Automatic annotation (TrEMBL):
<keyword id="KW-0328">Glycosyltransferase</keyword>
<feature type="transmembrane region" description="Helical">
    <location>
        <begin position="265"/>
        <end position="286"/>
    </location>
</feature>
<dbReference type="GO" id="GO:0016757">
    <property type="term" value="F:glycosyltransferase activity"/>
</dbReference>
<dbReference type="GO" id="GO:0005886">
    <property type="term" value="C:plasma membrane"/>
</dbReference>
<dbReference type="InterPro" id="IPR029044">
    <property type="entry name" value="Nucleotide-diphossugar_trans"/>
</dbReference>
<keyword id="KW-0472">Membrane</keyword>
<feature type="transmembrane region" description="Helical">
    <location>
        <begin position="228"/>
        <end position="253"/>
    </location>
</feature>
<dbReference type="Pfam" id="PF00535">
    <property type="entry name" value="Glycos_transf_2"/>
</dbReference>
<keyword id="KW-1003">Cell membrane</keyword>
<keyword id="KW-1133">Transmembrane helix</keyword>
<comment type="similarity">
    <text>Belongs to the glycosyltransferase 2 family. GtrB subfamily.</text>
</comment>
<feature type="domain" description="Glycosyltransferase 2-like">
    <location>
        <begin position="5"/>
        <end position="167"/>
    </location>
</feature>
<protein>
    <submittedName>
        <fullName>Glycosyltransferase</fullName>
    </submittedName>
</protein>
<dbReference type="InterPro" id="IPR001173">
    <property type="entry name" value="Glyco_trans_2-like"/>
</dbReference>
<keyword id="KW-0812">Transmembrane</keyword>
<keyword id="KW-0808">Transferase</keyword>
<dbReference type="InterPro" id="IPR050256">
    <property type="entry name" value="Glycosyltransferase_2"/>
</dbReference>
């Protein structure tokens, strides 16, 4: 019999893990496989870990890894992937926003030969501003990045052992899973589900963390922003040269022109801004290289079972 590992990153999810477990356990009766639950406690500061310990005690299919502090969801995903022993794995959120009722369908597709079964959600019930912003973001990212990232496609998916091993062979420090999933390819199947509103606990995403995550998505996959910096640099320098030539010719023909205040100031502001922007872009890449070269572990485990 094959084994299916279910990986659940949890950060301060005391209000929902038990419920998640009960509900998922029920649905797993429909999956003709041995089930292994891998809860990854990402340094929760509430009762998540004691609840997981208890679950593991009562059910030998339940395992958990607990981090020494909060390392972020990407680290939790990686830990779960490394720990899982299954022939296939399902990555799912603890807050029941990813319906476990989809897992039996995912398993069927896996049995039919798919390596990635991707659950795509629609965005019903979401705040209008967030919906619009995400929309604009995905348009931008897909223009900039080589891998295709689809709106509504999150981390909720099934991966075959082959796809999982491919993913684990990517050893970068800055992990942007959405991009990595798409980068590895393999035989993919997309299924859809209704967006679920979180009922228990709170979302861990602040506006700032979403913004940072968005930036990772753009920067992790290519160096196009650096290219843009170079081309704009060339463009602006050329324009500057032409402008200087024009002014010089003008000076020899008509003498000194006094009201140059506006142009001077606007040139300083414009160029200053653009230089800062591109310095920032270059800095971002150097920062990434810095973190890659340190080769620090992505997480530290305090306790596991
Ligand atoms: N999560 C995590 N570490 C973090 C933040 C979140 O493991 O630092 C987990 C969280 O417990 C949940 C999943 O990642 O199971 C998705 O988080 P959340 O529901 O806050 O994100 P959203 O659904 O709002 O995108
Ligand atoms: Mg959620």
């Amino acid at each position: 019999m094959k084994t299916l590992s279910i990986i659940i990153p949890c950060y301060n999810e005391e209000a929902t893990v038990q419920k998640f477990y009960d509900e998922t356990k029920e649905w797993m009766k429909k999956v003709p496989a041995q089930i292994e639950y891998v809860f990854v406690d990402d340094g929760s500061r509430d009762q998540t870990l004691p609840i997981l310990r208890e679950l593991a005690e009562l059910d030998q299919d339940v395992h958990y890894i607990s981090f020494s502090r909060n390392f972020g969801k990407e680290a939790a995903i990686l830990a779960g992937f490394q720990y899982a022993k299954g022939d296939a794995v399902v990555l799912i959120d603890a807050d029941l926003q990813h319906p476990p009722s989809l897992i039996p369908t995912m398993w069927n597709h896996y049995e039919n030969g798919y390596d990635q079964v991707i659950a795509k959600r629609n965005r019903t019930g979401e705040k209008f501003v967030r919906k619009r912003l995400t929309n604009v973001y995905y348009k931008l990212v897909n223009r900039l990045v080589e891998v295709e990232i689809t709106d509504g496609v999150g981390d909720f998916r099934l991966l075959s052992r082959q796809a999982l091993d491919a993913l684990l062979s990517l050893t970068e420090y800055n992990r942007f899973s959405k991009g990595l999933f798409s980068w590895i390819g393999f035989h993919e199947k997309m299924i859809e589900f209704e967006n679920q509103i979180r009922t228990e606990g709170t979302s861990k995403w602040s506006f700032a963390s979403l913004l940072n995550y968005g930036m990772d998505g753009i920067l992790s996959f290519n160096n196009k922003p650096l290219r843009i910096a170079i081309y704009s640099g060339i463009g602006i320098t050329l324009f500057g040269f032409i402008y200087i030539l024009f002014t010089l010719v003008n000076y020899f023909l008509h003498g000194v022109e006094t009201p140059g205040y506006f142009t001077t100031i606007s040139a300083i502001i414009l160029l200053g801004g653009i230089q800062l922007l591109f310095l920032g872009i270059i800095g971002e890449y150097i920062g990434r290289i810095y973190f890659e070269t340190k080769r620090r572990p992505q997480y530290l485990v305090k306790e596991k079972n």
